[in-house]
């Protein structure tokens, strides 16, 4: 389980995150929402140990983040940043193989190779394995990085706005993939996301931030309500019912 | 052993090409040495062969391959295809270090010069990286321009102090790399680069991961700053050794990894051999060309590489707009 206790992040005078205390459920798709600058990305990056908190503690499975050896933590938690760009020309297979690095330290055994194949198969990009990632479309690249995280075989997978710049077809594909990962492979997915309809349809649990503070956290159906969303985004959002899900309408 | 046999098996043509060029280079020079002389042990000719030609060949191969590898490391840790010891100012800092060593300890052995050059270039290159990480527009082209600018300033300082302390001629000889002065007994320090090439192989995955960015490296449990430090040490040492023994050999670290990358990608572990091979081959060809262009006179290899290197660099820049 991931637990935050009184986590604060300051950049000079500005407070990006103030006193967030929170426990996140495991084996769920957890969405972090909020307007730009609300602190959701900051929270994700602190949990993913990409940036240090100014105060407070983050616990991963009962152990404080700073007590984890970085290589051990890399077998437990993977984070994919917002800009998945590398100037290095790697093939999809090479990229996914690097997911095994925490386990193999560069010497890939038969078991590693099988896991890499499985990850490529699972994400449906086996046919792209020999392609260089700079030749892929944005959606394919995003999936290749997710395949790398799958090969890393971590319990937690954190993603910072994985739907950025993707058309709705690719975006829906990625959300479905993440949900299947949770259901079938028992991973815990934590992602920052803007489109609240994707949240409503694919997330199990939602955490909402506003002005650096935690505003709401709870099951999707408890958070995707017009009074909550009005509070989080400062705008009127109508909720329609579609199948058994809630559809948010935010065009006026 | 398995690795060795793999390297030898799959790359027969590369070895044939390199070895034939290497053997050929042994018989090119002002003094006429033929295979016949070697076989029948003409003592004077054999002397030229063993004292000058063979050491020259060895130093060309070691310098070429180690410079290409340090360029590759530099490109990965800076995440920029256009950064190399030549375009990051490393070479200029090395020269400053060599000059400082000459002024402070005129009679000191070469190893001390290497050491001072290493310390100065490590400092200078780290300074460059710190500077680059602070500027806002980290455009792929701006970074090497900053490096070359910084290198120019350092060069100016070197030249100024060289005049002040009357060591201009000494320093000028480091301006253009040249293998013609290499003879048995004065070049062996170059072999110090070999263990660092092996270290680069052992650390290859770490460099590739560092090239994927700080976030990706951290997610894979790697200390990004630590990898960058190791890379900087290797690059500074290899550059210092080369500059003390053979002078400034420009552009090898820039163009070789770029050419290899076009065909084989950027996974350091997969391309390390090809990079070393192409580096050695390129420097060998340029060295031989330098001996032939104005025969019986010699054009320093630094001049030839500057011409070829800057042309290829420009081509890469133009291509980079679409590709890098």
How would you summarize this macromolecular structure in one to three sentences?
Chain A has 252 residues and is α/β, with parallel strands linked by helices. Helix content of chain A is 35%, strand content 28%.
Describe how the helices and strands are arranged:
The complex is a heterodimer of chains A (252) and B (324).
Chain A: E1 2-11, E2 14-24, E3 29-33, H1 40-47, E4 55-60, E5 63-64, H2 70-73, E6 77-80, H3 92-98, H4 101-104, H5 110-122, H6 138-152, E7 156-160, H7 168-185, E8 188-192, H8 196-202, E9 205-210, E10 213-219, H9 220-223, H10 226-233, E11 238-242, E12 245-249
Parallel strand pairs in A: 3-8, 3-9, 6-7, 7-8
Antiparallel strand pairs in A: 1-2, 1-4, 4-5, 9-10, 11-12
Chain B: H1 2-10, H2 12-26, H3 35-39, H4 43-78, H5 90-104, H6 110-134, H7 142-164, H8 168-172, H9 193-202, H10 204-210, H11 214-219, H12 224-245, H13 252-264, H14 268-293, H15 301-323
Helix pairs in contact in B: 2-14, 4-9, 4-12, 4-13, 4-14, 5-6, 5-7, 5-12, 6-12, 9-12, 13-14, 13-15
Describe the structure.
Chain A has 252 residues and is an alpha/beta fold. Chain A contains 10 helices and 12 strands. In chain A, the strands form 3 sheets. Chain A has a 6-stranded mixed sheet, sandwiched between helices. A 4-stranded antiparallel sheet of chain A has the order 2-1-4-5, with helices on one face. A two-stranded antiparallel ribbon of chain A has the order 11-12. The longest helix of chain A is centred in the C-terminal third of the chain and has 18 residues. The termini of chain A are far apart. Chain B is mainly α.
């Amino acid at each position: 389980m991931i637990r935050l206790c009184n986590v604060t992040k300051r950049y000079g005078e500005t407070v990006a995150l103030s006193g967030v205390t929170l426990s996140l459920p495991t084996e769920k798709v957890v969405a972090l929402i909020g307007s730009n600058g609300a602190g959701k990305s900051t929270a994700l990056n602190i949990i993913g140990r990409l940036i240090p908190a100014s105060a407070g503690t983050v616990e991963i499975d009962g152990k404080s983040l700073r007590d984890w050896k970085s290589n051990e933590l890399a077998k437990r938690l993977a984070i994919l940043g917002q800009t998945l760009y590398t100037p290095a020309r790697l093939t999809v297979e090479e990229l996914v193989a690097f997911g095994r690095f925490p386990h193999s330290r560069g010497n890939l055994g038969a078991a590693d190779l099988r896991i890499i194949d499985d990850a490529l198969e699972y994400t449906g990009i086996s046919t792209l394995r020999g392609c260089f990632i700079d030749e892929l479309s944005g959606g394919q690249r995003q999936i290749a990085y997710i395949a790398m995280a799958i090969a890393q075989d971590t319990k937690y997978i954190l993603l910072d706005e994985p739907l950025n710049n993707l058309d709705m077809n690719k975006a829906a594909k990625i959300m479905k993939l993440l949900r299947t990962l949770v259901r079938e492979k028992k991973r815990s997915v934590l992602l920052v996301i803007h489109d609240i309809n994707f949240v409503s349809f694919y997330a199990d649990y939602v955490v909402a931030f506003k002005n650096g503070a935690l505003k709401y956290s709870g099951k999707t159906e408890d958070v995707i309500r017009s009074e909550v969303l009005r509070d989080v985004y400062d705008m009127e959002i109508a909720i329609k019912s579609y199948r058994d899900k809630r559809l948010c309408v935010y065009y006026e | 052993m398995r690795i060795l046999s793999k390297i030898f098996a799959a790359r027969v043509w590369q070895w044939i090409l390199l070895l034939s060029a290497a053997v050929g280079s042994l018989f090119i020079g002002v003094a006429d040495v033929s295979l016949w002389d070697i076989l029948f042990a003409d003592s004077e000719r054999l002397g030229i062969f063993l004292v000058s030609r063979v050491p020259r060949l060895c130093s060309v191969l070691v310098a070429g391959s180690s410079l290409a590898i340090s360029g590759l490391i530099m490109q990965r840790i800076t995440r920029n295809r256009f950064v190399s010891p030549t375009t990051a100012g490393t070479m200029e800092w090395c020269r400053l270090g060599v000059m400082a060593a000459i002024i402070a300890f005129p009679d000191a052995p070469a190893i001390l010069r290497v050491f001072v050059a290493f310390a100065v270039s490590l400092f200078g290159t780290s300074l460059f990286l710190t500077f680059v990480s602070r500027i806002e527009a980290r455009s792929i082209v701006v970074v090497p321009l900053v490096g070359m600018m910084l290198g120019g300033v350092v060069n100016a300082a070197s030249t100024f102090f060289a005049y002040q302390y009357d060591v201009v001629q000494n320093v000028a000889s480091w301006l253009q790399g040249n293998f013609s002065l290499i003879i048995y007994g004065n070049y062996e320090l170059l072999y110090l680069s070999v263990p660092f090439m092996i270290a680069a192989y052992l650390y290859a995955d770490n460099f590739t991961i560092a090239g994927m960015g700080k976030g990706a490296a951290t997610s894979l449990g790697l200390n990004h700053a630590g990898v960058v430090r190791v890379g900087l040490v290797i690059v500074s040492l290899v550059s210092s050794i080369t500059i003390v023994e053979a002078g400034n050999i420009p552009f090898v670290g820039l163009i070789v990894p770029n050419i290899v990358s076009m065909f084989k990608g950027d996974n350091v572990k997969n391309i390390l051999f090809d990079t070393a091979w192409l580096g050695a081959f390129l420097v060998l060809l340029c060295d031989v060309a330098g001996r032939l262009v104005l025969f019986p006179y010699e054009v320093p290899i630094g001049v030839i590489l500057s011409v070829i290197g800057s042309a290829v660099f420009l081509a890469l820049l133009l291509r980079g707009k679409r590709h890098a």
